[in-house]
Amino acid sequence: MKIRAAVLHEIGRPGPYAETKPLAVETLELEGPGPGEVLVEVKAAGLCHSDLSVMNGDRPRPVPMALGHEAAGVVAEVGEGVDDLVPGDHVVMTFVPACGHCLPCAEGRPALCEPAAKANGEGSLLSGARRLSLDGKPVHHHVGVSAFAEAAVVSRRSLVKVDPSLPLEQAALFGCAVMTGLGAVVNTARVKAGSTVAVVGLGGVGLNSLLGALLVGAERIVAIDLLPAKLELARQLGATDAFDAREADVAEQVREATGGGVDFAFEMAGSVPALELAYRITRRGGTTVTAGLANPGKAMSLYPVTLVAEERTLQGSYIGSCVPSRDIPRYVGLFQRGKLPVDRLLSETVGLDDLNAAFDRLATGGTVRQVLVPA
Question: Global pTM?
Fold first, then answer.
């Protein structure tokens, strides 16, 4: 079948993207689903910094590549061996299609699935196949999803069935922003009620961490960002304190306000300065968690003595250390019961032809979560 999709042909093209147009809307050939695969009509796909990091070169991937990884849609066709989904089912796509057999999967850590990491790095589906092509030449899949398109063929292991009453524009956010942000709080750090928490970087992922801190009963929640509008939104959502990251002494301000730093600091901006700030505002004996994907060529400065003498913890979190088939339905249930207002993070919807300009807004921080509605 033929579909329209946003394809990245060249990495590192400079902004403004509305002028340089790194994403080209192409008519691609999409093969039907192979064994263990599913054809999904894409109904909504969130724009995330993980997409932007491929475009700007922070997260190199093979090109040409059809981007988009945070999405929801409706099952249109199932391949051989798929017997637990049927056409019409509503699904959320996840960007680590856990194989279920490697050591991390066996340990209950599917976010670290080794075959999935290999396939995602190569731009293929979990099976190694590529179902997209342009003029007879293969087009790579973005982390097994490629959701900036009218339809996608994905591994069954990239899908989680969800309640069809959940609006798909909201469901899409559970595929990345909610899992990564909330999961970092409840799975990776296991924040306890009464803790003090700081979130550095208030995009879609960071604000979900803030909502997670509220959910688990954190006593004090410190929001830190470069943009006043995001600090104000954080306050509206429940942050007790807000600090401007542009101020040179922001770390000292936070440490003074919190009596020496916070129990848990979450870095969600994907930059080394943000991670260094998060580490500096973590108290003695506290934990710093990073889920931001900084440029792989960048390094942070760290005095190792603080890890020992202050019993500090510095921890990474990938897709919120989630088990998607377990956690996404739980998080959706929390949203439906009014305990996780992720709908307040939706900024606007855009079409395929508007994606380049939408990524300009994302790159400058002028939005929280934009959602593509392909048709």
Answer: 0.96
Token pair for 346? 């939706």
With a CB cutoff of 8 Å and minimum separation 6, the contacts of 242 are 222, 223, 224, 225, 231, 232, 234, 235
How far is it, in rounded angstroms, from Cα 220 to Cα 328? 26
CA 201 to CA 187: how far, in whole Å?
Answer: 19
Do 39 and 168 reside in the same domain of the chain? yes
Amino acid at 23: L
Domain holding 94, by residue range, is: 2-175+341-372
Tens of pLDDT, residues 170-226: 999 999 999 999 999 999 999 999 999 999 999 999 999 999 999 999 999 999 999
Distances (CA, A) of 337 to 135, 224, 232, 341, 344: 48, 28, 25, 9, 15
Residues 170 and 189 in one domain: no
**What H or E segment, with its residue span, contains residue 24?**
strand 23-30
